[in-house]
Amino acid sequence: MELKKILETQSEASWKKYIPTLSIDCVIFGFYETSLQVLTVKMKDQEAWALPGGYVQKDENVDDAAIRILKDRTGTENVYLQQFYTFGNLKRSESAFEAYDDSIWNKQRFVSIGYYALADFSKVNLIIDKYSTACEWHSIDNLPSFMMDHRTIFDKALLTLREQLNHHPIGYNLLPEKFTMPELQKLYEIILGKKLNRGNFYRKILRYDILTKLDESRKGGAHKAPDLYSFDLEKYNNALKEGLKGSW
């Protein structure tokens, strides 16, 4: 069934189920093969891509709505989720529904709460629902055209992630359970969009005291096998709450 017909059919139920004029858009980041990726969806009958999103039920907390939307698209709730901005420009979304009757739920003016999420790439199950034809990861260096103001939402999410990297740890939801220091440094470099001095990075990240050095090393390389690390979750979560000092 085409998207227009689907939305027209369920419009009346949406008016009863959801809070009017309030929506959620999620920027879901994942890390794969030294590349920071973002999850995108292609809606039926649309050429441009979109960020995963949805609406807030009348009997639902806003954060719970974001978690539900994430689970619907990724099949998992084990992600780091952070509200980062509110998007409410005039006609930010109505243009996508110009061919619809003015009474249709989706054509109303919506103020959207933006969330960014950090997900384990290997544990995400891409889910194509009845509104979409594709659900795919895209590298942040090779993004498709976005519908509505979703490129603006993505840009703000990435900027916020970079800013918060100066004050909070990152990596637990993006890296495997065991990782090397070069892999952690590469993640930071990709998010920040710049090279970091190896010695300075090692000293600083170790000073944060959020890592546990394992009695293991990464095998298989031509050079000396690098040591493996894992995050000390208690200290990591405390750093998320209390913050870190310094900047990259």
Automatic annotation (TrEMBL):
Which PROSITE patterns is this protein grouped with?
NUDIX
Q: Which CDD domains match?
A: NUDIX_NadM_like
- Species per Swiss-Prot/TrEMBL record: Flavobacterium flavipigmentatum
Q: Which residues form a coiled coil?
A: none
Q: What lineage does the source organism belong to?
A: Bacteria, Pseudomonadati, Bacteroidota, Flavobacteriia, Flavobacteriales
Using the record's annotation, list all stretches that form the Nudix hydrolase domain: 19-162
Protein name (database record):
NUDIX domain-containing protein
